[in-house]
Amino acid sequence: MLALRGVRKNYGPTEALRPVDLDLTGGELVVLTGPSGSGKSTLLMIAGGWETPDGGEVVPGAPLPDLPVARMSWADVGFVPQSISLFEELTLADNLALARGGPGGDELLAALDLTRLASRRPGEVSRGEQQRAAVARALVASPSLVIADEPTSHQDHQRALKVLAALRAAADRGAAVLIASHDPVAVGYADREVRLGAG
Ligand code: ADP
Ligand code: ADP
Fold it and tell me: Which of 20, 55, 60, 101 is 20 to 30 Å from 125 by CA-CA measure?
């Protein structure tokens, strides 16, 4: 689905990523672990195409021969940023509808305990609820690549399990799912754990 080849990233003198190789296959959930500052967020941003590496390349598994830039279409990548980043002026349901290109996602909202909150705006729900809505939004268009940065960081244990189950279900229907997490429970849902040291 996606391959990182010799990917490097520096922020000034900081080597955020030394050359990293990583293959992601459809149908698998990969959990990226490692200490704070080890480069997890940077790797996710590069894998999703939101950040440009200083060296190496990001190769989509299904090559797009006529495109000069190796990049998948936006609609085909679901992203849960650490910052959550919902549209504040839209209800949770409308945030999903925007991502999906139409209404729907009721099952996802239910699976993530959001049904009764669907008509609220992000400012009217808790941080944990916002985060689950961001997960729902990332999954609602059934993208082939899902990238989530600490998607259970604001959840209690029961809700963390629901978030992980939703991400697992996306992998089981064929998506490549890459998440960064400190949560040992997340590793239990993974096909593979990839540990990042200092970059
Ligand atoms: P993690 O997600 O594992 O905590 P990050 O990818 O956020 O790690 O950060 C890796 C390293 O790069 C850290 O040393 C961090 O301080 C640095 N870094 C990340 N983003 C920036 C930035 N925008 N500017 C400068 N340094 C950054
Ligand atoms: P927690 O911190 O346990 O996640 P909160 O205390 O933030 O929960 O929220 C508790 C309940 O109040 C949640 O169901 C949430 O939807 C609701 N709530 C939180 N903030 C607001 C708000 N600004 N306006 C309306 N409802 C809110």
Answer: 101
Counting ligand 2 atoms within 8 A of each CB, the residue from 86, 126, 132, 163 with the most, and so the one to mutate, is 126
Q: What is the pLDDT of residues 133-143, one digit of tens each?
A: 999 999 999 99
Quickly state the pLDDT bin for 60 (edges 50, 70, 90): confident
State the pTM of this model. Answer: 0.87
Give the closest ligand to the alpha carbon of residue 199: 1
Cβ contact 136:163 at 8 Å: no
Domains located in the chain, CATH noted = 2-195 (3.40.50.300)
The ipTM value here is 0.69
Residue whose CA is at the smallest distance from ligand 1 atom 12? 16
Tokens of 191: 């096909």
For ligand 1, the distance from its centroid to the CA atom of residue 105, given in whole angstroms, is 34
3-state secondary structure 109-166: HHHCCCHHHCCCCHHHCCHHHHHHHHHHHHHCCCCCEEEEECCCCCCCHHHHHHHHHH
Which tokens go with 137?
A: 């939004």
* Cα 174 from Cα 1, distance rounded (Å): 10
